[in-house]
Amino acid sequence: MNEIIPLKSLEKRADHYASQSLSPATKRCYERDWKLFDRFCKSHDLESFPSQPETVCLYLTEMADCGLSVATIVRRMTSITAIHEAGGHLTPVKDARVSRVLQGIKREHGAPPVSRKAISWADLRKMIAHCDALMIGLRDAAILALGWASALRRSELVALNIGDLEFLEEGMIVTVRRSKTDQEGHGAKIGIPRSRGDVCPVAIVERWIKRISENPLPPEQPIFVKLGVISRGKWWSKPSGRLPARSVSKIVKTYAKYAGMNWQQYAAHSLRRGLATEAGARGVPERVISRHTRHRSVKVLRGYIEDGTIWAENPLPAIYTGSSSSTGSK
Predict the structure, then answer these.
(1) Biggest alpha carbon distance in the chain?
(2) How many whole angstroms separate alpha carbon 90 and alpha carbon 83?
(3) Which pLDDT belongs to residue 120?
(4) Does this model's pTM top 0.90?
(5) 84-102 residue pLDDT tens
(6) ω before 53 within 30° of 0 (cis)?
(7) Domain 121-308 belongs to what architecture?
(8) CA 255 – CA 189 distance, rounded (Å)
(9) Do the beta carbons of residue 221 and residue 161 sit within 8 Å?
(10) Which of 112, 26, 38 is nearest to 69 (CA)?
């Protein structure tokens, strides 16, 4: 490298790279949380930046007494830390006084996190059975089938483009270019084999892509697109941009309700959780499941697997039958 780049230009580029260290979603979360903290400080004539440990203790107390969940409180503390460190200041959140108050809130108000119920393979088939052959029905069936079979997060699912899918005789290879746990974009590939049953995720996605266009689509074309009210009851309707991630939960709840399930217990994460839970119930090894789901937290994944084996690995059947074996039954 022979050319000497001016320092101001390097400083500008350094700032740019630093800004890219966080995902847009994380930045929005930090900004939203900071506005709430700043509003609290202004209403009590306190300094928000840099803030004092005493101020954070008071903010913690207000949040806890207003009924906010421990998870929300901890997330807001993370945002306060991020803003202070980005501004070159030590975070008041790490002060011992703040830690004691937060620990007390956890002990007094802590509760198990609310988790969405897993969608089983049987549940998925019932939900997809309510998807018709019209434009919206085919799209929703593809979202449910691929979301479940790939165990993708909702943000990953709606981020898929045509170029991210490769159809083979064996099935379909899905390339996940970036994810929540892969912000540097190393990417991952997931294999979805074809099914000979009445529900084949690969065939369902193929039908949806064919409905979008009879001609080959550009690689950057989103797979899952928005279809407004005007598309209802129509065989074909012009898409209007990429589907937002929040819409996946609405689709899951809609078809769970159609299938006679308690729809309020389900959301987009029910698809990802469902694959892991079903695989655990069928005795699939943990390493195989984790490779497919790309879980970084083995603890979280094992929770899903244990949910799936709650009946298969149970001591009571052996007691009921008077047997010395405790293999259980499904």
Answers:
(1) 83
(2) 10
(3) 96
(4) no
(5) 998 899 999 999 999 999 9
(6) no
(7) Orthogonal Bundle (1.10)
(8) 28
(9) yes
(10) 112
Task: Tell me the domain boundaries of the chain.
Answer: 24-109, 121-308
Give 25-66 as a DSSP string: HHHHHHHHHHHHHHHHHHHTT---TTPPHHHHHHHHHHHHHT
Amino acid (one-letter) located at 325: S
Q: Tell me 221's DSSP state.
A: S
Confidence of residue 329 (pLDDT cuts 50, 70, 90): very low
Q: CA-CA distance, 303 to 305, in Å (whole number)?
A: 5
Pick from 148, 150, 152, 143: nearest CA to 173? 150
With cut-offs at 50, 70 and 90, classify the pLDDT of residue 180: low
E strand or H helix at 143: helix 135-150
> Cα torsion for 63, 64, 68, 69, to the nearest 10°?
130
Q: pLDDT tens for residues 219-236?
A: 999 999 999 888 889 998
User: 24-109 in CATH: which number?
Assistant: 1.10.150.130
